[in-house]
Amino acid sequence: LASCSVCIKMSAISATEKVDGFTRKSMRKAQKQRKSQGSSQFRTQSSLVELSPLPHLKDTPSTEQQVLFVQKLQQCCVLFDFLDSVTDLKSKEVKRATLNELVDYVSTNRGVLVDSAYPDIIHMISTNLFRTLPPSENPDFDPEEDEPSLEAAWPHIQLVYEFLLRFLENPDFQPSTAKRYIDQKFVLQLLDLFDSEDPRERDFLKTILHRIYGKFLGLRAFIRKQINNIFLRFIYETEHFNGVAELLEILGSIINGFALPLKAEHKQFLMKVLIPMHTTRGLALFHAQLAYCVVQFLEKDSTLTEPVVRGLLKFWPKTCSQKEVMFLGEIEEILDIIEPTQFKKIQEPLFKQISKCVASPHFQVAERSLYFWNNEYILSLIEENIDKILPLMFGSLYRISKEHWNQTIVALVYNVLKTLMEMNGKLFDELTASYKADRQREKKKEQEREDLWEKLEALKLQDVSNSRGLQIAQNNNNNNNSLTNAEEPNTSAAITDSVNSQTFNCAK
Amino acid sequence: MAGAEGDDSLYPIAVLIDELRNEDVQLRLNSIKKLSTIALALGVERTRTELLPFLTDTIYDEDEVLLALAEQLGSFTVLVGGPEYVHCLLPPLESLATVEETVVRDKAVESLRKISQEHSPVDLEVHFEPLVKRLACGDWFTSRTSACGLFSVCYPRVSSTVKAEIRQHFRTLCSDDTPMVRRAAASKLGEFAKVLELDYVKSDIIPLFTALASDEQDSVRLLAVEACVSIATLLPQEDLEALVMPTLRQAAEDKSWRVRYMVADKFSELQKAVGPEITKNDLVPAFQNLLKDCEAEVRAAAANKVKEFCENLPEDSRETIIMTHVLPCVKELVSDTNQHVKSALASVIMGLSTILGKDNTVEHLLPLFLAQLKDECPEVRLNIISNLDCVNEVIGIRQLSQSLLPAIVELAEDAKWRVRLAIIEYMPLLAGQLGVEFFDEKLNSLCMAWLVDHVYAIREAATCNLMKLVEKFGAEWAQNTIVPKVLSMSNDPNYLHRMTTLFCINALSEVCGQEITTKHMLPVVLKMASDQVANVRFNVAKCLQKIGPVLDSSALQAEVKPVLEILATDQDMDVKYFAQEAISVLTLA
């Protein structure tokens, strides 16, 4: 009998599944995905006292309203387990109704926020909201592909957030009174919640933190510093934090309000946090917000353009084409607002990179970079500096126009070449003429490099068998610099480099 | 040789420097990776006076390049002229220890730790310790985090005044404003404690430990749990209760599951560090709580430790504690709602039988094993089956065989091929323990069914499995039970199955021996040489090459050679190739 039931079970497995086992990832995930998750706060499942409804606030004489308000706040401090959908149904409903009433009470009435109510208000909020977020249901949660787990207690938590927001926005709200309760610890716990997987929760948090930043001047520096810490941890330690986009959005509006000249602290934040943030894996999730912040900084202070662009070039994606497209988008946003003097400072390294992108075998990368030539302002900048830019771009464009597999790219490249030729026909002709010779020179240089290394390797081998080799090498060192001199006027690209190596020689 | 020819254009530093500065990152990276070669070419003096200053200045580069540089410098001592010059390496490493990228920084710290050992005590105080101090007082958090990893390597070898300064710096970093620094300090707390004098452990480390363990960030608190193991090992037993236990108790009940997880994860180490008495009084209830934790992550971590925890209980009370405190929790975990918890438990639960002995196993554990063998999650069942040997030693496998069979059959046909693969791998073990009759009766057909699985990996594993079974049961058994079935597949309409016959012969010929191979297998192989599918034909060639050494020379000459010669003139390129290869390997040409 037992084996019979086994047989039945077996036949239930579909033939396709048996064939490859590589059923689509999303399908498999959908099967095991659980919709909601509880917060990690129900340690002891002691049975609760059942809540009983209190009289309505609006039916109570105004003299007694304050006492009842506080009673209701206290009633709302009782927590329920929402993963268990059958217990405490009545009490859950009582609390929900009470929370609704409280939201209504603080948003429509004037004069209800007396000083003595603040501690109870904050206590109710803290008890409900501040909790350790549970471990993610799905350890390799991919925010781009997977459905987030939603907070099970949302029917209550949503109302508490709503209440907090209305409380902060109430015209009678007194930051001077509230600052004793809405303090650094409060903010820190609020920031921890930004890691919630539930987008609805993060959305509330965003608005609330923004209000707090606006109303509590004393907390501003602290909030910025803590966001800084969250980001650094995200970039360099965990690579995981769900609320990055929301925090960046808040920052976007904060940066807008920075006074000029920018403080060193803010510049440091830009260079040491925002720029390295481009390296993280989940960039696609918050790139729009991040690029907005970066551009905000540049609009404030254009002298930051050079370090920012150099920073982006340093972190330019090596293997991820999707990210490369995002970087190109951000560069275009920067170029849209760049000052011509700043452009001159970064044109060389920038167009070396763009030249590589144009030649990318990934057609989206190539296409995105070629679109720069559709931008009137960029075009005018290029034209102004055509003597510098054309030599950087020419090689790639010329090669791609003959080699790229994608016809759209080839067509785009022709247009770009045509535009460039119109800008400076003479230089264009010269470059066309010397193209072959340049390639040969490059090849020759490459060969020389290889020879050099071969000799160095030989030296190393020789050294292992004969320690005297080291001395010979030393003697030879002092003799000759002719090779370097011969190398110097080689490519137009090596301008900065040769300057450096001269300083180096001087230092000797 | 370059040197011998007197090639004098080879070593000007500028050429080498240009290599290190090449525009192409990949080339730059290659050059940096061969930095030792460059240093060798320059000689020790120019390496010190020219190369190192250059490297110190080029710290603004791709992290990839910096990582390679940081690594290289750790083994550069010889190249700068030995230990008396090792301090020359400090400036570039100091800069590297302050960069943002964690991987680079960690590598720089690793190299600094390495070369610290090559400093003389004087150099350590003159050069190395000031560097540590500078890092510890750095403006940006990166240098301070790096400093945390360097205190313990210089502390034992410096004078007592400097020691006092180092302790002071460490204290400061433990209460740093930036959580990253506090995390770095917390993660080095145990290591630092080990090099401190016992009095300072008590007076300095304990307050730091207590403070870090109640930090506002759970990511700091959980690192303190790790330090707890080292600290508890250092202290005499009588001090543990007062100095360590309050903190540990608090950690086991922390409101953050991450901290509780860490306690569960480190439980065996903690148990050893605090000793039997405290284990009995404190850790047993703590362990029970962790096994009943509200978060599955914590329960799974604790479940993983069940066997080790029980093993390490003091012998006099081991059985009582297990029976009255641990086992009730374990029973609940068997029907946990989370499959990771159940499968963690299943991977260790069988180990309890050796600790509890035969009677307790039969009475208390057997029902749990049986329940887990019927679990809905295949991983749980697999984990039980993979640990059968523990039970076999105590009560014999027969007690389980009735329940084993349905479990095995179900796994053998699981929809996920990785599950099927896993169970195949346990077949030889099971066969050995269950005996040949049981195997023939119940499992043999399964083993044959895998040979025609839809997934190649399964067919391959099934082939290998047959070989192992023959090793266990002998050639005669093979001839009677396996070989006929395998050979009959050579007429299968599906060419993949026909190829499976060849793969099986490849695996079996050696264990079956010359007689069976020549008499039964070879004729089938030769017949398949005229198969219409080229893949089958070239596998015949490969197969002949494989079984050739098992055959005697007359069979090779008379039967194999003509067939290979025909195949060597096949129309198909691959068939030709493999036939020719076989001819030359078997030296039949």
TrEMBL record, chain A:
This is Serine/threonine protein phosphatase 2A regulatory subunit. The lineage of its organism: Eukaryota, Metazoa, Chordata, Craniata, Vertebrata. One of its GO terms (cellular component) is protein phosphatase type 2A complex. One of its GO terms (molecular function) is protein phosphatase activator activity. Residues 471-508 are annotated as: Disordered. SUPFAM superfamilies: ARM repeat (SSF48371). Residues 482-508 have a biased composition (Polar residues). It holds the Pfam family B56. The gene is PPP2R5A. Belongs to the phosphatase 2A regulatory subunit B56 family. GO terms for biological process: signal transduction. Gene3D superfamilies: Leucine-rich Repeat Variant (1.25.10.10).
TrEMBL record, chain B:
The keyword rRNA-binding does not apply. The keyword Repeat applies. GO terms for molecular function: protein phosphatase regulator activity. Residues 276-357 form the Phosphatase PP2A regulatory subunit A/Splicing factor 3B subunit 1-like HEAT repeat domain. It comes from the Eukaryota. Keywords: Repeat. One of its GO terms (cellular component) is protein phosphatase type 2A complex. HEAT repeats lie at residues 12-50, 89-127, 166-204, 205-243, 244-282, 283-320, 326-364, 365-403, 404-442, 482-520, 521-559, 560-589. Residues 89-270 form the Phosphatase 2A Regulatory Subunit A helical domain. PANTHER family: PROTEIN PHOSPHATASE 2 (FORMERLY 2A), REGULATORY SUBUNIT A, BETA ISOFORM-RELATED (PTHR10648:SF4), SERINE/THREONINE-PROTEIN PHOSPHATASE PP2A 65 KDA REGULATORY SUBUNIT (PTHR10648). Belongs to the phosphatase 2A regulatory subunit A family. This is TOG domain-containing protein.
